[in-house]
Amino acid sequence: MSTTTPIPSTMKAVRMHENGGPDVIKYEEISTPILSSPSQILVAVKYSGINFIESYFRSGLYPTQQPYTFGREATGEVVAVGDDAAVKFQIGDKVAFLEPGAFAEYMVLDTTANHRIFKLPAKVDLKSIAGALLQGLTAYTFIHEAYEVKAGDDILITAPAGGVGSLFVQLCKLRHANVIGVTSTASKVELAKQLGCDHVIVSSDEDVASRVLEITNNKGVEGAFDGVGKDSFEFTFKSMARKGTFVSYGNASGPVPPLNLLTLSAKNMKIARPTLFGYVATPDEFNKYTGELVDLITQGKLKVNISQTYPLKDYKYATIALESKESTGKLVLEI
After folding, report:
1. Residues 273, 145: one domain?
2. Residue 282: CB atoms within 10 Å
3. What is the pLDDT of residues 51-60, one digit of tens each?
4. Does 226 lie in the same domain as 329?
5. Is position 82 within any domain?
6. Most exposed residue of 107, 182, 241, 334, measured as fewest CB within 10 angstroms of its CB?
């Protein structure tokens, strides 16, 4: 193992010891992890993205072992390297990674067991990458694999001013699609338009499906990407075109109710419920998609809308803002 800087014996992390609301979130001092295998690296975490999925683990919707350290995407700097890992990584390398437990000052990553570690260019904005890794890869892989967005397609995107929705909008526009955004409040309409939406529908004020049919000359949309879930499922379903593909990927308003598959027959529709990790299951897939995403960000073609940065100790307040739908764009923790 090699290291050039002293590593403290303890660190700060954000964890929970029981399921519940935001009050179960604890900012704690715990032992700093150490390398236990020559294939591991130790990363000093700099920024970590905040995602709605953490509320599912906290509530118990997604079961997990406890104590549970929150977070699953981050950027940082390599500060210690095992002998075998030195083939790929050196001290001082900037990295982005997907790994549970990212709301902590240090993380041990196994370069053999986890292929979702990406060596970044030396000059890169670590905050932007941390804010885009999980959601950016979700949007980027979905527009290639869940439904391949094509020029001229009419595409419906729910929550277009949110973290992942804003990336879906931009990526679909880069593919020259016509984007219809659906937001719950009028206050987010202007931001959705700035991000690239050709049309924005306020679901609390309008009949979404009727408006979509009006915009598309009664055709409907070829593709839809919905992360809201229960509250948006019905109008999204009704907005689909013949042979359209409905991609449902989130439960922000609650789980989607059971679906009778026979209802797909009327339009020969497809419906998908993919996860990011099914599209980056191999090193080649992860490196391809992450490399292309990082290039889009560093070239300025994809803007990461980080609306607010919180210190690690304030994650509780950040997730309250996120879960109450008060926030727009992406929320990030500075570690």
Report:
1. yes
2. 10
3. 988 999 999 9
4. no
5. yes
6. 334
Instruction: Give the rounded distance of the alpha carbon of 82 from its chain centre.
Output: 30
Range of the domain at 114: 2-124+305-334
Nearest Cα to 165, choosing from 148, 150, 186, 143? 143
Closest residue by Cα to residue 160 from 129, 131, 213, 196: 196
Residues 218 and 119 reside in one and the same domain = no
Range list of β-strands (E), the chain: 2-3, 10-16, 26-31, 40-49, 68-69, 73-81, 94-98, 106-110, 117-119, 154-158, 178-183, 199-202, 221-226, 240-248, 270-272, 306-311, 330-334
Q: Find all residues with CB under 8 Å of 91, minimum gap 6, and list them.
A: 2, 3, 4, 78, 79, 80, 81
Site of tokens 């990363």? 43
Other beta carbons within 10 Å of 317: 13
Q: Are residues 92 and 158 in the same domain?
A: no
Domain count along the chain: 2
Taking only the tens place, the pLDDT of each residue in 278-318 is 999 999 999 999 999 999 999 999 999 899 999 999 999 99
